[in-house]
């Protein structure tokens, strides 16, 4: 069993490296992905700090008439709220911008979920920020799962895993898309 302090130490190391790797490059090449082309409903997020930027991707997804859902923390889970791109419809929750409005009850409508990560290994397992919110959500969805990271945050080194960790189907940097064989 993986010790929590092992993952916490790795997270801290990756956060420090992320500041050096940060670029504000858009992830617009993902618009050519067949998964995003075919998707009607996409769960995404508003990036902050040194995370890969989602602003241009979210704007373009809205421009091509995709329905976007953003996460909002509710106790130990994420709930998902439709967002039309209006930043007036967001509220601050710590570092996060969360949507106002009613949560979507039927999460089976989500075709693609775009998730944040600090690192993704060769098997598609991601290391997130440590709250477990996304792993709990990913376990309940049948959507195509893609993580966004910076160059250098995808690797062959296996990250420490716990039974609740859920792999993603793909990982993207601002230049590349890697789809894992499942």
Summarize it.
The chain has a single domain, classed as NagB/RpiA/CoA transferase-like (Rossmann fold, 3-Layer(aba) Sandwich). The protein is built from four helices and eleven strands, in the order ααβαβββββββαβββ. The protein has helices at 4-21, 34-38, 55-63, 133-138, and strands spanning 41-43, 67-74, 77-83, 90-93, 96-99, 112-116, 119-120, 126-127, 144-148, 170-172, 177-179.
Any chance you could write out the topology, listing elements then pairs?
Elements: H1 4-21, H2 34-38, E1 41-43, H3 55-63, E2 67-74, E3 77-83, E4 90-93, E5 96-99, E6 112-116, E7 119-120, E8 126-127, H4 133-138, E9 144-148, E10 170-172, E11 177-179
Task: Describe what you observe in this structure.
This protein has a single domain (4-179), classed as Rossmann fold. The chain has helices at 4-21, 34-38, 55-63, 133-138, and strands spanning 41-43, 67-74, 77-83, 90-93, 96-99, 112-116, 119-120, 126-127, 144-148, 170-172, 177-179. α3 (55-63) links the parallel β1 (41-43) and β2 (67-74). The protein has a seven-stranded mixed beta sheet. With 182 residues, the protein is an alpha/beta fold.
């Amino acid at each position: 069993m993986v010790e929590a302090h092992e993952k916490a130490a790795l997270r801290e190391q990756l956060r420090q490296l992320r500041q050096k790797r940060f670029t504000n490059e858009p992830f617009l090449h993902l618009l050519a992905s067949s998964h995003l082309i075919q998707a009607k409903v996409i769960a995404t997020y508003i990036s902050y700090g040194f995370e890969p930027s989602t602003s241009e991707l979210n704007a373009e997804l809205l421009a091509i008439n995709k329905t976007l859902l953003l996460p909002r923390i509710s106790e130990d889970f994420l709930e998902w709220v439709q967002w039309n791109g209006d930043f007036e419809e967001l509220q601050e929750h710590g570092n996060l911008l969360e949507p106002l409005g009613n949560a979507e009850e039927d999460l089976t409508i989500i075709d693609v979920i775009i998730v944040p990560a600090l690192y993704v290994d060769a098997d598609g397992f991601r290391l997130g920020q440590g709250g477990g919110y996304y792993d709990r959500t990913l376990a309940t969805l049948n959507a195509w799962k893609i993580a966004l990271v910076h160059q250098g945050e995808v690797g062959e080194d296996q990250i420490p895993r716990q039974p609740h960790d859920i792999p993603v189907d793909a990982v993207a940097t601002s230049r590349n898309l890697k789809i894992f064989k499942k």
